[in-house]
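Researcher: Re-running this chain for the archive, since the previous output was lost when a drive failed. Same request as before.
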Amino acid sequence: MSKKADLLSGINEEDQTLVFKVFGYGSLLWKVNFNYSSRDHGHIEGFQRKFWQNNKTHRGTEEKPGRVAILHETEEDKTLSGVMFTIKGASDIEDAKQKLDTRETVLGGYISIQTTFYDEYGVQSAVTVFTATPDNDLYVGQICDHPHDDVEHISTQVVGAQGRAGSNAEYVIKLAKYVRRHFPNEDDEHLFLLEKKVTEKLSNRSRTVQINYEQLNGINHHDI
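Model: Regenerated structure tokens:
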């Protein structure tokens, strides 16, 4: 092998040793816009998923902001399931970081923190995860004393919001379905109650539209 080939081989090997790992617990579970080498199911500890962040871009607007999930610190024995994405190589890592920074930080108001990920076999990895704190303008937190009242309020906001990525209701329902399917032991009361409330409101809205249509149709036939 020539010296040039040796040099190129060494650069390629060094490039492949660069690794970036990010944990997804929201829309990253099903909507990834960067290249990755592998994705692994598992969990992090000491956090719960809460819809305590307004969103005025992806799932809402300035006039009607939506709600998106963040991490809320809780007891250390609590676990939160999700996916660890492993990105390798300088080019893919740079691309992923730029896209995540735009998606999560610039447009979402999130910050990045480091925590430990445990895969399905208990193997630990250091991961980056994006979340929001009360320091940003989009943070809402819990606004009702009782958790069920808070979820009721959130659900009303969700069904009326839509952004450039789609409806806020779609975000909630897709997230709940993914968690239920891939993490059947996950006891995420906040998420599943919100899904239930959102689904009920959408169903009631559909019935109201159908009733109004039938009434209007009846009036038109009567007039004829």
